[in-house]
Amino acid sequence: MSQDNQPLWDDVHEALSVHEQEAETLEAFEQALARDPNNARAWTNYADMLSNLEHDEEALAAYRRAIALDPRFATAWVNMSCALTRLQRKAEALQAAEQALAIAPNSAPAWNAKGVALLSMQRRREALLAWRRAVALDPEYIAAWYNISEAYRWAHHHEQALSAYGRALALDPHFAPALLGQGETLNALKRFPEALQAFDRALQIGGQLARTLQDKGIALQGLGRIDEALDVFDRTLALENTDPLSWISKGSALLQAGRDVEALAAYERAIEIAPGNSYAWQGKAETLQRMGRGGEKEAFDAGLRALALRVAQSKIPLKAFFARLIHHDVSDAMHLTG
Q: From residue 51, how far is each of 11, 44, 238, 263 by CA, in Å?
């Protein structure tokens, strides 16, 4: 493998990664590769760029070219594993990560990639162990800390999630995804003032604007600042008008404000976009029940639709669930589904 031009490659990769024009970026890489076609790191950098641009098959071919040039270049195996995971080629992704670990068993990025591949296969406990191994090897490896925090958040282990987000943010206070996840965890704990601070910091940094705005609106609603929450939800919908969760959030705030007719319209818009969203049906049921529209039957029917969408995926005490349905207590039965 030629390494004579390595400083050039590092400079090219850093400078061109910020180019606004995809064609110029790729052309520059291709011209450099034509001059030095046997540099495995250069092929890996080129593959990374292709992957970022979602030129997936070309990226995989470039990773394989790098590996053909240097089969023991662990970085190429690691990055190819991540690309394969994104393509849902799960078994291949895990195999690539394990190949990287066979070459570099103490590589934190390789353990992180293995964790990501395992998570895609729903092997959550093994994924968490892999990420913990990554941070044990490199306590400053922020990607693994972020993955650990997300795993805990999705498992509803909120305090452990906050601790891991804290580790990630201690390494990079401007890491917007960690600020967003921290805020969402604080929302789940109903620690709305702290959540609002996290979302405001994330918005100052940028990234995932619509999602961050939606979560900020939820925090404002939790604080009882309904008008501000509705303004934020409207900003979110101006960015992504077909996001059902934003319509559901707006419906919830409108319902809390006593604007039942508008709330119903928001929930029905969410149902139009995503007929399989149980939370939209639940919101519709609660709104109809409060409005008394069409008697109890229409609200009950909407609640049943929500339950039908959720019950099969929930671990619930069926005896208690059906007892509540027999008594037409849809709202109480819904709480059993989580």
A: 19, 10, 30, 42
Number of Cβ atoms within 10 Å of the Cβ of 268 = 17
Residue linked to tokens 């707006």: 250
Number of other residues whose CB lies within 10 A of the CB of residue 338: 10
Cα gap 262→230, rounded to integer Å: 12
61, amino acid identity: A
The whole-angstrom separation of Cα 300 and Cα 333 is 11
- Straight-line distance from the first to the last Cα atom of the chain, in angstroms, rounded to the nearest whole number: 56
Return d(Cα 333, Cα 330) in angstroms, integer. 5
Please name the residue ranges forming H helices in the chain.
6-16, 22-35, 40-52, 56-69, 74-86, 90-103, 108-120, 124-137, 142-154, 158-171, 176-188, 192-205, 209-222, 226-239, 244-256, 260-273, 278-291, 295-310, 318-326, 330-336
For 301-325, b/e burial (b = at least 16 CB within 10 A) is ebbbbbbebbbeeeebeeeebeebb
Residue 206 to residue 200: CA distance in whole angstroms: 10
Two tokens at 1? 């493998």
Spatial neighbors of 189 by CB under 8 A, at least 6 apart, are 158
| Two tokens, residue 63 | 């990773």
Whether the pLDDT of residue 203 is over 70: the answer is: yes
291-336 tens-digit pLDDT: 875 556 666 676 677 767 666 555 544 445 444 444 444 444 444 4
pLDDT tens, position by position, 220-250: 999 999 999 999 999 999 999 999 999 999 9
Distance CA(64)–CA(191), nearest Å, equals 48
Q: Which amino acid is at 332?
A: D
Which CA distances in Å does 53 have to 25, 78, 83? 11, 18, 11
